[in-house]
TrEMBL record:
PROSITE patterns assigned to the protein according to its UniProt record, in alphabetical order: ENOYL_COA_HYDRATASE
Enzyme Commission numbers on file: 4.2.1.17
Top class in the EC scheme: lyase
Keywords, in A-Z order: Fatty acid metabolism, Lipid metabolism, Lyase
One GO-annotated biological process of the protein: fatty acid beta-oxidation
Protein name per Swiss-Prot or TrEMBL: Probable enoyl-CoA hydratase, mitochondrial
Chain ranges passing through the membrane: none
CDD domains: crotonase-like
Organism of derivation: Coniophora puteana (strain RWD-64-598) (Brown rot fungus)
One annotated GO molecular function: enoyl-CoA hydratase activity
Length: 260
């Protein structure tokens, strides 16, 4: 293994699995840990065999936040001078879908890491939260923006001002997670890998275009977003996968997508 804080594997030829593996600190995201995650994500993104990525932790914790012990003595000059956490922006550069399979704690930076993924699946044991207020700070990995967009202002304020945890059922009701899977060890990962495999069997270019267009909904006014969507849609008529997908429908057979 190239990495100290994560495990990487291919549960299916089209699926890259990244497992956070710092059990002694409940997967708290130290600088080195986060660097490992980014590096593995970039490797998976660049590998043309991979169609979708799954990010997971342990049964006890997806990730319990940024590493508080590493952060506690930082000065303003360290934080501002070195632009602490600016590499979190790099998560946005991954073009293939990332599914977060969350069991146990997803707190602070752990919640923000899950929110940065494209789909969250949760075990009934999942506990989300932005407890930074209890540490005298605020979320720094996108929580004030992404959680607010996900749950709306009133709930976002309540969650981030009290720092309370919210459970898998609440997260599902509010649209933070796509689905709460049935109880049982390994179930959420199994379901995430199954979903990643299904996505990996679709046309790669259409999958990337979908991710790009949905994410544009968070950045653009509606008119621009609709235009952007339509232009991507037009562009897909230049792909083999569009010809194959529509021919397969007309011929009543399953498509075999080959573009990458
Ligand atoms: C460093 C951590 C940690 C963290 C847990 N540990 N969370 N170390 N940073 N965020 C370590 C503990 O120190 C302990 O180490 C071991 O993991 C097990 O944790 P316990 O607290 O003993 O476990 P438990 O009693 O089960 O409680 C679990 C918990 C609690 C509720 C998740 O650990 C907790 O409240 N953690 C902090 C959560 C948090 O505040 N996260 C936000 C961080 S700020 P030892 O050596 O004692 O066994 C943040 C800013 C975001 O994320 C910025 C963007 C990235």
């Amino acid at each position: 293994q190239r990495y100290e804080n994560i495990l990487t594997s291919r549960p299916d030829p089209g699926v890259a699995l990244i497992t956070l593996n710092r059990p002694k600190a409940l997967n708290a995201l130290s600088t080195a840990h986060f660097r490992d995650i980014l590096s593995a994500l970039n490797d998976a993104d660049a590998d043309e065999k991979v169609g979708a990525i799954v990010l997971t932790g342990s049964e006890k914790a997806f990730a319990a936040g940024a590493d508080i012990l590493e952060m506690k003595d930082k000065t303003y000059a360290d934080a501002y001078g070195n632009n602490f956490l600016s590499n979190w922006e790099d998560l946005k550069k991954i073009r293939k879908p990332i599914i977060a399979a969350v069991s146990g704690y997803a707190l602070g930076g752990g919640c923000e890491l899950a929110l940065s993924c494209d789909i969250i699946l949760a075990s009934p044991t999942a506990k989300f939260g932005q407890p930074e207020i209890n540490l005298g700070v605020i979320p720094g990995g996108g929580g004030t923006q992404r959680l607010t967009r996900a749950v709306g202002k009133a709930r976002a304020m309540e969650l981030m001002l009290t720092g309370r945890m919210f459970n898998a059922q609440e997260a599902e009701r509010w649209g933070v997670v796509a689905k709460v899977v049935e109880e049982g060890e390994g179930k959420v990962l199994e379901e995430a890998v199954g979903m990643a495999k299904a996505i990996a069997s679709k046309g790669r270019l259409a999958v990337m275009a979908t991710k790009e267009a949905v994410n544009a909904a968070y950045e653009m006014p509606l008119t621009e977003g609709l235009r952007f969507e339509r232009r991507l849609f037009h562009g897909l008529f230049a792909t083999n996968d569009q010809k194959e997908g529509m021919a397969a429908f007309a011929e009543k057979r399953k498509p075999n997508f080959t573009d990458s």
